[in-house]
């Protein structure tokens, strides 16, 4: 037991191949190419409609509110309603299809993991407690499930929205757009900095969860032996130690993760202040219309939301990659229980 724990602690320090893990994980989705193409089409349509809404808002301010045209304002308000509702419907459809695809892919991943476990030798199970293996079948697969089923569509939508908003901003006004994109490198630098520590924290958390599950499994299944040798107090002490390790690693991992939300909120506030200040200065010199400023503020909020979602998705993606590495580590373990090439089935054995 102790020897296996030391081995796992050594493995956690090794460098991880994130690209290879992500490629293997996406390989389980690659068999659904037609459905994925449909999801992509729905997400692109939803992203385009998301760009149209703020533009119509600016048109409404410049052409109908400024000119006090209630009839025109009513028509464009109706179009805005249609655009927003349609975008939400396309987004819901994409998420529903992706949820079904991801669950089927994870079903095959669970099947591969459990099937490969049946081919491993007894020495492997001696070195790896049942609780740890159960953690990989449950906790690690669940972490992958949350990332794949909930974040794939959101990731694609966020990237498309960012690109679309940037293009629309530069088309409308170069200087306002230039002021807007200042937050992008700051956001990505901080996200990348925090993500390194977040991923390490979630890896450690999953490691300690596996060890805690091992202690609980042994404490429950080995009650007869423990009572016979009066080892209950020792088991309680072991549980307390591993439970404390889970607590400390969870606090550390989530402390890094929670840094992202306050940062993106502050960047959003600074973004709006910059747009209002620069936009007002340009409007006083008749270089931009009030409707364009409204459009930029709306685009700005839409621009910060994908950045915030990408930042939050880092937490889930880091946990999923850490879990996937642990799952593929088992799948990559060479099988030691194999039939001979000329093996024949035994029949009529009584």
Notes on the protein architecture:
By secondary structure, this protein is mostly helical. It has a single domain (2-331), classed as ABC transporter type 1, transmembrane domain (ABC transporter transmembrane region fold), CATH 1.20.1560.10. Helices cover 85% and strands 0% of the residues. It has helices at residues 2-12, 18-27, 33-65, 70-117, 122-127, 130-172, 174-180, 183-221, 223-228, 232-257, 260-284, 290-331. Helix 3 (33-65) packs antiparallel against helix 12 (290-331).
What is the residue-mean pLDDT, rounded to a whole number? 80
Tell me, what is the CATH class? Mainly Alpha
**Count of domain modules:** 1
Main β sheet profile = none
Q: Pairing-aware structural class of the strands and helices?
A: mainly alpha
CATH architecture: Up-down Bundle
Distance between the termini: 38 Å
Q: What is the tally of beta strands?
A: 0
Fraction in helix: over 70%
Features:
350 residues, mainly alpha, ABC transporter transmembrane region fold, 12 helices, 85% helix, elongated
Topology:
Blueprint (H helix, E strand, L loop, with lengths): L1 H11 L5 H10 L5 H33 L4 H48 L4 H6 L2 H43 L1 H7 L2 H39 L1 H6 L3 H26 L2 H25 L5 H42 L19
Helix pairs in contact: 1-8, 2-12, 3-4, 3-6, 3-12, 4-6, 4-12, 6-7, 6-8, 6-12, 8-10, 8-11, 8-12, 11-12
